[in-house]
Design goal:
The chain has 173 residues and is an alpha+beta fold. The chain has three helices and nine strands; from the N terminus they run H-H-H-E-E-E-E-E-E-E-E-E.
């Protein structure tokens, strides 16, 4: 018997895998990143969104403004105490909670606080004029009827305390 011979026909030769350099060039073409146009479109969209969101941001009071308002009220209280001792007469600091202003007896100046702050007054019942205004009274000996003025904006607040016995004014965070 004669062995069967299989003929080897001209089959296409097996191709070798592409070289590393050829693969990296092909990858660069498909993974080229973003084009300049795509980046510009994204930046334009981000700027439009930011421009629409700005009016909705709260225009609250900065911490410095709030602390400055507390210091201004404390200075007014200390001035009223000094005036009471110097003139040997009662002196009041009159606080208008609605208008956010205060003034001192025998002083024509009206001090205005920032409109965004909330004010609360705790004082003797006889010194409350109405729900929206009241006073803290200082006596000729330097004492006071005592009280507290709270100046707040959101979660932050300062309390300006007046000691009833000594008339000492202190700011507490």
């Amino acid at each position: 018997m004669t062995p069967l011979r299989t003929s080897r026909s001209a089959a296409p030769p097996l191709s070798s895998p592409p070289s590393r350099a050829a693969r990296s060039r092909a990858d660069r073409r498909t993974d080229g990143g973003m084009s300049l146009i795509e980046l510009l479109v994204v930046l334009m969209l981000m700027s439009l969104i930011a421009a629409m969101a700005v009016p909705f941001l709260p225009s609250g009071v900065s911490g410095t403004e709030l602390r400055g308002a507390a210091r201004e009220v404390a200075a007014g209280l200390r001035f009223a105490r000094s005036d009471a001792v110097a003139s040997r007469r009662e002196t009041r600091l009159l606080l208008d909670l609605e208008a956010r202003t205060f003034r001192i007896d025998r002083d024509a100046r009206v001090h205005t606080l920032p409109k965004q702050v909330d004010l609360k007054l705790f004082t003797a019942q006889r010194d409350l004029v109405d729900e929206k205004s009241g006073a803290i009274r200082f006596f000729p000996d330097g004492g006071s009827n005592g009280g507290r003025i709270t100046i707040a904006a959101g979660e932050r607040k300062y309390e300006v305390d007046v000691d009833w016995l000594t008339g000492r004014v202190a700011i507490a965070d």
